[in-house]
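I'd like us to work through together how a protein chain folds, taking it slowly. To get us started, please write out a protein record for me. Label the sequence line and the structure token line clearly, so we can match residues to local backbone shapes. Once you have written the record down, we can walk along the chain together.
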Amino acid sequence: TNHGEELMVLDTSGEPIRNSKLIIDNCAILIGPEGGWSDRELQMFKDKNTKVLKLGDTVLRAETAAIVSCATVIIE
């Protein structure tokens, strides 16, 4: 990614998003399917140095996760 741009993946195995100290101008947040990301997909993200984050301990529906993740990034 370029300076100021960030690609983030949401998964229950990730670091809490509130602990990530995000300082970004632009970002893309990838929200997984209902069953979660496969191990292969998560490994691909990690191999590409993509941050794997989680919103919290509660599993959210995809449409709710999209709203909460955007709000969290804006607030942080």
